[in-house]
Amino acid sequence: MKTIIATITLTFALFAQAAEDDGWVSLFNGKDLSGWIKMNDVQCEVNNGLLKIVKGMGWLCYDKEFKDFILELEWRALDEQYDSGIFIRCGKEGKPWPIDGWQINLRYSAIGGLVRGYKNMVPAETSKQPLNKWVKMRIEVKGKKVSLTINDEPNWEFNELDRDSGYIGIQIENKVFEFRNIRIKELK
């Protein structure tokens, strides 16, 4: 009997170790804003494991620079004509948002449909999402290439990134959003 219990314990320990070794790191713990910096006018709260953007004109910046990575998250809009975005490889300077870097737009008319690089805008295939519906996003960044998957469907990719590294952020533009399951896997 002791051998069976030891085997089961070892098996669970190996599964737990494998989960830690897969490279994924949570950027949001569901309890508070640990690791995040409020930039400019940002009002947000954490309730029931969700990051809720309430209002303001600014952004939340994760306080670590990333180079190549896969970022996964889920979001839903709670206001009509919603507008937000996910910043990648951006700097911290600028008001209300970073003056350099890239943004994947979360806008009622074009979810992920524009990538704003502040030097140009890249039109892409668009999809619209209804209010109060969770949207799953996967953003993969490697070298100059970035690709976006929405709800497990490839949306677009292009090869124009001009910054080697930078911060990740969430844009706040006076619309109510909720985010959950924000995680990252750094690529080598």
SS content category: mainly beta
Radius of gyration: 18 Å
Q: N-to-C terminal Cα separation, in Å?
A: 44 Å
Mean pLDDT: 84
H/I helix tally: 1
Order of helices and strands: HEEEEEEEEEEEEE
Major β-sheet, in short?
13 strands, antiparallel
CATH architecture: Sandwich
* Share in β-strands: over 45%
Q: Compute the number of structural domains.
A: 1
- Portion in helices: 10-25%
Strands, count: 13
If you consult CATH, what is the topology?
Answer: Jelly Rolls
Point out poorly predicted stretches. 5-19
CATH superfamily: Exo-inulinase, domain 1
* Shape by Cα distribution: globular
CATH class division:
Mainly Beta
Note down, in words, how this protein is organized.
The chain is mainly β and 188 residues long. It is 11% helix and 53% strand. The chain has one helix and 13 strands. Strands 1, 2, 3, 4, 5, 6, 7, 8, 9, 10, 11, 12 and 13 form a 13-stranded antiparallel beta sheet that branches. The longest helix has 20 residues, at 2-21. The radius of gyration is 18 Å and the shape is globular.
Q: What labels describe this entry?
A:
globular, 53% strand, 1 helix
What's the short story on this structure?
The chain has 188 residues and is mainly β.
Describe the protein's topology.
Elements: H1 2-21, E1 24-26, E2 36-47, E3 50-62, E4 69-77, E5 83-90, E6 102-107, E7 110-116, E8 121-123, E9 135-142, E10 145-150, E11 153-159, E12 167-173, E13 177-186
Antiparallel strand pairs: 1-13, 2-3, 3-12, 3-13, 4-9, 4-13, 5-6, 5-12, 6-7, 7-8, 9-10, 10-11
